[in-house]
Amino acid sequence: MTTVKHETKQRDSGSKIGEIAEQFEHVFLAGLGALSNAQQVGVKTFDTLVKEGENFRDKTSKKTESLIDDVQDAIRDMTSDAQSKATGLIDQVRDTSKLDTLHDVFDSRVADAMKRLNVPTKKDIDGLNRKLNKILKELDGKAPTTRKKTRSAAKPKAAAKPAAKVTVEVKQEKVSKE
User: Fold this and answer.
1) HEC string of 81-135?
2) Is 156 helix (H, G, I), strand (E, B) or coil?
3) Span 140-153, mean pLDDT?
4) Residue 118: left (phi > 0), alpha (psi -120 to 50), or beta?
5) Spatial distance between the Cα atoms of 37 and 24, rounded to a whole number of angstroms
6) Is the pLDDT of residue 151 over 60?
7) Torsion angle, CA of 4/7/11/12, rounded to 10 degrees?
8) Do residues 167 and 129 lie in contact, with contact meaning Cβ atoms separated by under 8 Å?
């Protein structure tokens, strides 16, 4: 009976060793299966990540292009506004109606100041010129014989010619009152 017990123990220990070896083999094979599965899933995951990366790049490129377009449009608008404002300012500076008004105001103030200082106007000077011309004509008509006799006796000088019409011209700007 001892032999039967020993055999049973050997069987029991052999089967236990076999079971353990079989379990180790199952664990090893499960590990290999997990590795194989991880490789397959990893490749699929890698491919999925590549596709997601491409999609993300496309979306960000489109957004970046859209932002660049928006910035360029804003710059164009600002440039257009600045040009129109500058053109408006230049037109205001070049506007002759305002400049003419300024000239008229200046002329009237100068004329008022000259009037207060008793400076003769162009009209006054023109009147004096007419009177002087009349007087000179009368003088030329009354004494031409006496002058000719004195001139014939002496050599005529360029500065000693008979008095011509004297006109005094005063340049005066247009004067208007508001």
Assistant:
1) HHHHHHHHHHHHHHCHHHHHHHHHHHHHHHHHHHHHCCCCCHHHHHHHHHHHHHH
2) coil
3) 56
4) left
5) 19
6) no
7) 70
8) yes
For residue 108, give the amino acid letter.
S
What is the mean pLDDT of the segment spanning 118-137?
92
61 is written with which tokens? 């490129």
Residues 6+ apart with CB under 8 A from 132: 165, 166, 168
Q: pTM, whole model, 2 decimals?
A: 0.32
**Which residues, including other chains, have CB under 8 Å from residue 147's CB and lie 6 or more apart?**
162
Distance CA 6, CA 24 (A): 26
Closest CA to 132 of 156, 168, 157, 105: 168
Query: Residue 28 above 50 pLDDT?
Result: yes
Per-residue pLDDT band for 94 (boundaries 50, 70, 90) equals: confident
- At residue 170, the pLDDT reads 46
What residues have CB less than 8 Å from 177, skipping those under 6 apart? 108, 111
Question: Of 112, 95, 93, 94, which is closest to residue 178 (Cα–Cα)?
Answer: 112
3-state helix vs strand vs coil in the chain, percent to 5? 85, 0, 15
Cβ atoms within 10 Å of 1's Cβ, excluding its own: 5
